[in-house]
From TrEMBL:
PROSITE patterns hit by this protein: FIDO
Residues covered by the Fido domain: 63-223
UniProt keywords, alphabetically: ATP-binding, Nucleotide-binding
PANTHER family in alphabetical order: FIDO DOMAIN-CONTAINING PROTEIN, FIDO DOMAIN-CONTAINING PROTEIN DDB_G0283145
Active-site residues, as the UniProt record annotates them: H154
InterPro entries: Fido, Fido-like_dom_sf, Fido_containing
Keyword Nucleotide-binding: yes
Species, as recorded: Psychrobacter aquaticus CMS 56
GO MF term set: ATP binding
The name this protein goes by in its record: Fido domain-containing protein
Residues at which ATP binds: D158, G159, N160, G161, R162, T163, G164, R165
Keyword ATP-binding: yes
Length: 323
């Protein structure tokens, strides 16, 4: 969750900084940016509680307007960012203008401004989202369109982006998507310029009465989900490979196929983020300590033995774990 929150908030904090903030006592949080992290954590936990244990991508669950205001309240509570009453829709005065977008991402537009129009559009959005035609569409189509149209309405003074992505996540969770429902946000963050530009492109396509104006945004969401699922699959394979490697290493140690010293050398290497040549590895303080009472020849013999046993291999002169 720490990585997700860090990515979802636009990379303002690193993963480590995000973790430190989330472990701070809430009453000690002073900055709005830090408070937003806490709020997002609360919102994600609430969305997770709505999770469907069954995978049902074409059996949508009814969506409630109360969920929208609740999500906005969760992400906006306690923030001192000007006029943004939690869970309350905009009602612009005649002199107040709200704009969405910018020139960099295809232009900006004015969403509906008076409360009466916003409430009417949101109610129509909910009825459409729960209509027989839409509720049983594949969840990727339903969730991405729910997200898209919510952002066009832009019903709150602030926090619409966070609320819209949480709405999308909630719809995914209601269909049993679990990990991929939140991991797709990292895809959005990696492709943030395209994400914003597509809102404007599709809006202009609809304004010009083009056929299927929202197709590109749906395609974008589908590509993101496919990439997300593939990434999760790769991560799972890497984890399985690591566990199998660790099991083989433990068995070799238990059966004395490798020495305790060789086992410890591998364990030290597991903590490295870089690769080393054998000579550079021997200069590492931890490895050097393991061989403090041994000759260099012993070290190189141990390395050759670990390569022969399949626990290490050399590539471009550097040692890598054979995971």
């Amino acid at each position: 969750m720490t990585l997700l929150i860090s990515g979802f908030e636009g990379g303002e904090f690193s993963e480590e900084e995000t973790g430190n903030i989330l472990h701070t006592v809430p009453k000690d949080i002073q900055k709005s940016a830090e408070k937003r992290l806490f709020n997002l954590k609360d919102a994600l936990l609430w969305v997770n509680k709505q999770r469907n244990p069954q995978f049902e991508p074409t059996q949508g669950k009814p969506f409630l307007l109360a969920d929208v205001t609740h999500l906005h309240a969760l992400v906006s509570q306690g923030l001192d960012e000007g006029h943004n009453p939690v869970g309350q829709f905009r009602d612009n005065e005649k002199w107040q203008k709200t704009y969405v977008g910018n020139a960099e991402h295809g232009g900006r537009y004015q969403p509906p401004k008076c409360l009466e129009d916003i409430e009417y559009l949101l109610q129509a959005w909910i009825e459409w989202l729960n209509s027989p035609t839409i509720i049983n569409q594949h969840v990727i189509i339903r969730a991405s369109l729910a997200h898209y149209y919510f952002e066009l309405i832009h019903p709150f003074w602030d926090g619409n982006g966070r609320t819209g992505r949480l709405i999308e996540m909630l719809i995914y969770e209601q269909s049993g998507y679990r990990l991929s429902s939140s991991a797709i946000w990292q895809y959005y963050q990696k492709n943030i310029h395209e994400y914003f530009a597509l809102f404007n492109h599709c809006r202009k396509q609809a304004k010009n009465k083009k056929d299927l104006p929202n197709t590109l945004f749906i395609d974008f969401a589908m590509d993101g989900m496919l990439q997300t699922i593939n990434d999760l699959h790769d991560q799972s394979n890497q984890l399985i490979g690591f566990l199998l490697y660790q099991g083989s290493l433990n068995n070799a140690r238990f059966n004395k196929a490798i020495s305790e010293r060789q086992f410890n050398a591998i364990m030290v290497m597991m903590g490295f983020s870089d690769t080393y040549t054998p000579a550079a590895l021997l200069r590492n303080p931890q490895i050097k300590a393991l061989y403090s009472n041994r000759t260099e020849r012993t070290f190189y013999r141990d390395i050759e033995s670990l390569i022969d046993a399949g626990f290490l291999f050399e590539q471009d002169g550097k040692l890598l774990l054979a995971i």
